[in-house]
Amino acid sequence: MGVIKAALGDAILTSLWVFCSSTLRILTAQVAVFLGLQHVSLAGLFISTILATILVFTISFIGSRLLGGARFNPSTTISFYTAGLRADSTLASMAVSFPAQAAGGAFGAKGILQVVPTQYKHILKGPSLKVDLHTGAVAEGVLTFAFNLVILLIMIKGPKNPLLKVYLVAVATVALVIPGSHYTGPSMNPANAFGWAYVYNKHNTWDHFYVYWICPFIGAILAGLLFRFLFISPVKQKKA
User: Fold this and answer.
1) Do 211 and 186 form a contact (C-beta atoms < 8 A)?
2) For 5-58, how does the pLDDT look when each residue is reduced to its tens digit (9 = 90+)?
3) Which of 5, 129, 180, 222 has the fewest CB within 10 Å, making it most exposed?
4) How far apart are CA 90 and CA 81, in angstroms?
5) How far apart are CA 167 and CA 173, in angstroms?
6) pLDDT digits (tens, 9 = 90+) for 201-224
7) Measured between alpha carbons, how far is 42 from 178 in angstroms, rounded to an integer?
């Protein structure tokens, strides 16, 4: 029952993340216009980072305080588990939570399309492959590797201040999204990618699972293994 409850929390949190994160581009443009900065170089990047910081902090608070430690990104669960930092995660629990997160992603994507004004719907496309299949798969894997390694470094070895941690996560995310936008979107979150693929009926293809699930999982596992090798000392067993 505990696994089912946790998976339900993951589904709810993932739907909130997909619903809210998809509006960042729209909100960035609106804030820039409101402040009269739409023609200022790098203003959009700064605004996006601040909005992403607020969003990540809010979603993290909801997940940890209101939903019992719920998570919204399967790749970070994998990387922390591989690094030996998820004592509460098992292969069985992940086998339940990942489909729940995917369902939450689909619910969030469908939800935002129902409420967003018509003039903005063309912006809400979600991650999509912009290069050939194998190049995209490698790119998504590398981006997810970098994303998870940075997350591990910030959360485990980074500053103590939680708000500063979240800000650094937002900066890293934006920094990876910019180059990744020319390849796969990018997603760096299989549940988010699945949600948008489901909306546009592209979720049940080999290309989708290859690019947005298999390669990101490989990248996340490698990030966890590298972090574990570099920073986590093996437990030395006492001699009897």
Assistant:
1) no
2) 999 999 999 999 999 999 999 999 999 999 998 888 788 899 999 999 999 999
3) 5
4) 8
5) 10
6) 988 899 999 999 999 999 999 999
7) 12
Q: Is the peptide bond before 190 cis (omega within 30 degrees of 0)?
A: no
> What topology does CATH give the domain 2-231?
Glycerol uptake facilitator protein (1.20.1080)
Q: What percent of the chain has pLDDT over 70?
A: 96
Number of C-beta neighbours around residue 160 at 10 A: 6
- Which tokens belong to 95? 């086998």
- pTM of this structure: 0.92
- For the beta carbon of residue 109, count every other beta carbon within 10 angstroms: 25
Q: Token pair for residue 67?
A: 């939903």
**One-letter amino acid of 152:** L
Q: Which two tokens stand for residue 153?
A: 């470094």
d(CA 220, CA 138): 13
Q: What is the pLDDT of residue 89?
A: 86
Please tell me the distance from the alpha carbon of residue 6 to that of residue 157, in angstroms, as a whole number. Answer: 27
Buried b (16+ CB within 10 A) or exposed e, 190-222: bbbbbbbbbbeebbeeeebbbbbbbbbbbbbbb
